[in-house]
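ugh finaly. both done.
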Amino acid sequence: EDHPEGDAEHNHHDLPIDLGFNSSTDSHAGHDHGTSPVESLPSPFGNQNPFESKTPAKTPADPIVDQIVKKIPGLFDEELQQIVYETIAKTKPEDRPELVKELSTGMPGLIRQVVDQWKNGKPAVPAVTPSASTDWKQYRAQLLRDISGVYTEHLDAQRAIMEEVVYSLHGVPDQVTVKVLEDWNADLRGIKPDPDPTTDIRAALDRRVYNQLNAARVSISSLPADLQNRMQNIR
């Protein structure tokens, strides 16, 4: 999924790791996440801000859909609210409860993945069985918690890190996502055997993705355009 750029910004400058964003114009006074014993760890995200958007917010026309949207947690900006609104509006009424359940993670990154999957209505064939999907999502969530917990003990900062990772991994096949997170977690915690000995704690997230895509024999050309560009830069 493409993440267009524009006025809306999602600030992460208070995180205990440097995400590589320009913080000269930020104002976040009075909100201190404290320090972390590993705050010198390099940023795995590079210099891209995936939270910017140029999609203008629109006034909802359907009060029923509007009420549904208001009950979904994690919709912190108008642009994301509008995307969710449009997705629900295009979904058949009988399929909306299932969609709302999938949207109710409270994490904007996961919400964007769901609306992308449902942008043309309910997915005709799920990529995995419901039980396997649940197990995979739980395992991914645990890996994300383990990784973010190395960078900071503060829950709100951990949540922001997890959301950014989800954004950065959007478009990566599920099985590759798991391998990427397993390798990152192993490097941070010294877990053996190391899934990818060519990476260490200084490795950028895109480098891990590139390596695991190659290991899984996934063609770069099969990925979304923005992800293709990022992977081509790794070469």
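ok and the 2nd:
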Amino acid sequence: MMFFMSGLKAISDYVVKFRLTSDLLINTIYIKTSLL
């Protein structure tokens, strides 16, 4: 049970980091395209 919970937390941490990175990428791409 504890292993499952720690695995769940690691997955959610990874998802949060992935979403932050993709948000940054989308923002930079959007800014570059709007500047063109």
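summary for the 2nd one i guess: Residues 19 and 25 are 10 Å apart (CA to CA).
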